[in-house]
Amino acid sequence: MKHTVLSCATLAILLTGCASMAPEYSQPAAPVPAAWPEGPAYQGKTAGSSESAVTELPWQDFFADEKLRGLIELALANNRDLRVAALNIERARAQYRIQRADQFPKVDASGSFTSQRVPADFSRTGEATTNDEYTVGLGVSSYELDLFGRVQSLKDQALAQYLATEEASRAVRISLIAQVAAGYLNLAADRERLQLARETLAAQESSYQLMQHRFQAGSLSELELRQAQTPVEAARVDVARSISLVAQDENALNLVVGAPVPAGLQPDALSDVMTAVRDLRPGLPSEVLLQRPDILQAENLLKGYNANIGAARAAFFPRITLTGSAGFGSGELSGLFAAGSDFWLFAPRIELPIFDTGARSAKLKVAETDRDIALASYEKAIQSAFREVADALAQRGTIEEQLAAQQSLTDATAASYQLSQTRYEKGVDSYLTVLDAQRSLYGAQQGLIATRLTRLLNQVTLYKVLGGGAPVTETH
């Protein structure tokens, strides 16, 4: 009996060795230029620089700020989107194991005991009898001989889905890291704006008090007093608005981190984190874009749909399934393994498709169309990625010039304000000149904060759109 079962299983495995009927897969050509765009907007360092390529740079090396690194580690341990992505990987891995198991026979052991009483009217002897039956055995249940690669194609499709899910998780991880960094930098910028608004309010309140004393002494008109009050109230509005923005930034950071952010990991001002991130070089499109996790995810989905065509093609051919069992049976437990009590069953089954009103042809067409849709989605993902990188490079190419110009503007307006203040105190100019200089200086200072934030966010964006660096194993 043992040899019979092993022989059937071995025969089944030998008969299964066949090639898949799926089309041979070859990676589609990238539908984007071989080099990044060039022009006045794309200045600065290029792929020939000596900096580390983003695909070789772990996030711990890219983000230099200790607080930001601690915040990212906290997010990687607590963010719910990342947890869902990890669970999706586990589900896809289990699904792949299910499909892979279908390639091998399933051998089950069974044992049973049956006791039946036969009444006298149904008994051949005319007397009531009790019949006992004991059985034990091994069996192969409904194992398909994969002669045309149907099961193999389904396994390949499940593997591609699993790999796509892994890449999707990597994409979520990179996006999360970029979100945390952006939230951290936005909070730093808004706190610096709040600090600037409070300092401006304090200075303008001090000036307004002096103006009130002069008005009470009769050396100042009410018009000039009201003109001095205007920037005070405007600064008070900005303080209230900045307080609200800081609170919203903190709430957004708590959400993306997945836990309340400790005070020790929060930034103070943007000027304190200007070196929080490193600069990056873009590399070549073919080297960078095809390694982005979202591109790899789209390609694995394409491979899965390509494999699914093999399963749809195999449906046109016969399916052979095997059912077999062998064991021992006896009417008495003591005679269960006695000589002559063995039994066996071998029941092959073949299904030959003849007529189904075109259902199989339609399913094949669906599989081929799904593959074509996946191909278009893969190419669109590459084109979108190229555009994202090109936009980030266009901004990076001019941001240093913008920052230098904004700093120069801020310095010039600060000097203009000091001069207008001096001229007003000497009676040369009216207070309206001072107010205009104050507004210009405040706007320039706000613009400087915004430009610095844009520069840092651009580096974070490049980290994300260039693929997020080398994958590393986290310890939580």
What is the compact description of this entry?
This protein has 476 residues and is α+β, with helices and mostly antiparallel strands. 60% of the residues lie in helices and 11% in strands.
What does this structure look like?
- This protein has 10 helices and 4 strands.
- 60% of the residues lie in helices and 11% in strands.
- It has 2 domains: 1-19 and 104-145 and 319-352, Outer membrane efflux proteins (OEP), CATH 2.20.200.10; 31-100 and 148-317 and 362-465, Outer membrane efflux proteins (OEP).
- A 4-stranded antiparallel beta sheet has the order 1-2-3-4.
- It has helices spanning 2-16, 59-62, 66-78, 80-101, 150-216, 222-257, 285-288, 293-314, 359-425, 431-465; strands spanning 107-118, 129-145, 319-330, 342-351.
- With 476 residues, it is an alpha+beta fold.
- The chain is elongated.
- α3 packs across α5 and α4 (80-101) packs antiparallel against α5.
Helix-strand category: alpha+beta
Strand content: 5-15%
CATH topology tier name of the largest domain: Outer membrane efflux proteins (OEP)
- CATH domain class name of the largest domain: Mainly Alpha
Number of domains: 2
H/I helix tally: 10
Poorly predicted segments: 1-6, 8-16, 46-52, 472-476
| Nearest-integer average pLDDT | 83
Largest sheet: 4 strands, antiparallel
Into which percent range does the helicity of residues fall? Answer: 55-70%
Please state the CA-atom Rg, rounded to the nearest Å. 37 Å
**How do the strands of the widest beta sheet line up side by side?**
1-2-3-4
| Assigned CATH architecture of the largest domain | Up-down Bundle
Which superfamily, in CATH terms, is the homologous superfamily of the largest domain?
Answer: Outer membrane efflux proteins (OEP)
Number of strands: 4
SSE topology string: HHHHEEHHHHEEHH
Shape descriptor reads elongated
